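Hi everyone, sorry if this is the wrong subforum. Our group has a chain we'd like a structural model of before ordering constructs, and none of us has done structure prediction before. Sequence below.
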Amino acid sequence: MKKYLMLINGEWLEGDRFFPVRNPNNDDLIGTVPEASKADVDRAIESAQKAFGVMAEIPAHQRSDILLKTSQLIKEKAKELAETIASESAKAWKFASGEVARAAETFRFAAEEAKQIYGETIPMDASPTGVGRVGFYLRFPLGVIGAITPFNFPLNLVAHKVAPALAAGNTVVLKPASATPLSSLKLGEILMSAGLPPGALNIVMGPGSTVGEWLVTDPRPRMITFTGSPPVGAAIRDRVGMKKITLELGSNSAVILDEGTDPTGVIPRLLVGAFANAGQVCISIQRIYVHQKIAKEFTDKFIKGVKGLKVGDPLEKDTDVGPMIDEGEAKRAEDWLREALNQGAEILVGGKRKGTIFEPTVVTHVKPDMKIMCVEVFAPIVSIIPFTDFDDALDQVDASVYGLQAGIYTKDISKAFKAVKRLNVGGVIINDYPTYRVDHMPYGGVKLSGMGREGLKYAIEEMTEIKFVCFNLT
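Answer:
Right subforum, don't worry. Here is the predicted structure as tokens:
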């Protein structure tokens, strides 16, 4: 067990109080971290504010070098970081290792984008009053960025906020999830080793009701970037005042399997999409709409695949599904499932809970208003819904308060484009699952799934502001 410290102005500091970080798999104490006080948060913001004058003046190539060095160090420390992720979040080793690789790639993309923050010329003489004038705009960093991150990707979702902010010349005050702060602290060590100036990244831990609230309502940060639940995101939106804001929230992501889809070919992807990280992924598959012509074959083979998944210790290299983040969340999922069963749903496989372990579960005979269908379940529970008409399946997918990503398997190009046009989501993934993401693509949602976009280029656009310049040459 290690005592960790918070990072303020390039120094690792203790706090007045510490809280434990435990392994969800066995409840072992794996570390303690300081709970930031109001004074600590004030110092972190002040440090970031002062460091902004330094970061904004660092040439793009030097910021790029720091980010590229960070990417290289993440690769060098891949085993240690994967162990940390698997221990604090209970993510299965194979997916923890994948997250580390993605974080390294995220910083590499950020290093590339740091050198490509372009402005644009404006054809002023398009207006009679603009004749004789030359206009253009440049992008400038905002200043202090407040970043609040979740437990389910404790390294890469932090990278998606910190890396673009630094690439653009901003500074950051980061509040990671209290359940999984250790990956963030290790990333802080790496960034300092890579040459990041003191104060450019500050890391403070504690509850959202205190540390998060202080960060959101303080007038000095120019932007808040948050990943988490829609209710918390809505509360933050209502309290940020005149700050910019990016919200990456939840979903009940769906996939459609049209007639002609080969069930054998898609099942390996759908097993990962539904059950990786115990379903605790914003774009985890929650609803599978399958054409009646292939429904029985798909369902039989999918259930066989679920039964073949290994559930257990996330540190074992062949584990497919580890525990949920805590027993309270596992009990909530159990309650929602029991409620659905009372309303007529039927379990095809799984459904049992032991402590934080929730078996991969497949449900049928569901209704649209069941919680496991219409609310983000964030657990290893997926529902199968047969359909006969593709348009009706699109309507069912779109009849959701969320709109993050959807997956469509079809051999009909016209149906693919119909889905692209009709589905009100941030991303439509054709012939793959809705859980697909690479780290440089624009990523984000509509409706209760949030606002703004992540992905390095697009996050940098959110984290900069345009300054227009006009020369009168007459």
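For your construct planning: The first helix runs from residue 38 to 55. Residues 441 and 455 are 5 Å apart (CA to CA).
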